[in-house]
Amino acid sequence: MPMRVTGMYSGLDTESIIQELVSAKQTKVDDAKKKQTKLGWKQEAWKELNTKLKNLQSKYLANMRFADAYTKKKTTVSNSSVVSVLAGSGAMDGVQSLKVKQLAKSGSMIGGVVEKQGGGSVNALSKLSELTGGSITAGKILLKTKNGDNTVDIDVTNLKTFSKEKNIDFYPLMLWVVSKVVNSHDEFKYSWDEDGHLIRWDYISPSYADFHSEDENFTKMVTEYSDDLFEFYDRVIADRERYKNERAVLDNQPLNFFDVSCLPWVRYKHFDVHVFDEGKFLAPVITWGKYELDNDRLVMPLTMNIHHAVADGFHLSRFFNEVQDLIYALQ
Prior knowledge:
Mean pLDDT: 81
Shape: extended
Number of helices: 6
Radius of gyration: 31 Å
Number of strands: 12
Strand content: 15-25%
């Protein structure tokens, strides 16, 4: 059993001596902890600075690489409620007069009324057997466009030329083209909330696959949509770099998305996608294939599948026409 001789017998105050010795060591420990804390503060400050620099690069400086950033033209309209004007970089300076004789009226198409047997509201959780109206019966429903085909050939010659002139990849560029047209129309932005109520997103972003040729696998991700082409392009490039070592579908993806697929190895005539999810997926599913030279033009098949609860052949046709118009307008 250890014995301790206190100051009462030895004449030395050993308790005070021990406390002083321990205090000296503790001071060094406290100093080291303070330095460690200060170092942590510095690291956090550097991280915050790096984040701000990255935002500066992606939001502002990236666009300064291109001549278009310095040749933009601004337009003003005396009555913006009846007309809007966009000017390209090659537009001439001057004042133009436009006389509006008649404003167009929006078209609409109304289907038959679908109700629930015994009353009550129809939502995403309603079963086919519970519905009345039209020709709906329990079982399966197969909806197609009038001619059974929702694939068209798109002229992408100008899109390929634009990608070369701007030194940007064709795939993210095409992603932006279809995303811009999709976000221009509300019928493509419907979905359901957690309680089964119909909602409409302010915007939806593309969920697309990044193929890895080295192992023939892919990364399925969502890049947030931006109406600005080069801002969206930089986001795609950043996401592809960030998740280049991931495979399959990434976790925790946002819910406001539409699906995009690409088959760059084959030029097909028709491509049909079925979404097996109880029929609740309302967003578009867009696919395109390989572009090939056809009579001096690069032609590429483009497909859209859409739930007929929110859109039909008219909306499909408008989508294809506006995609083609947007490609022609790029300069």
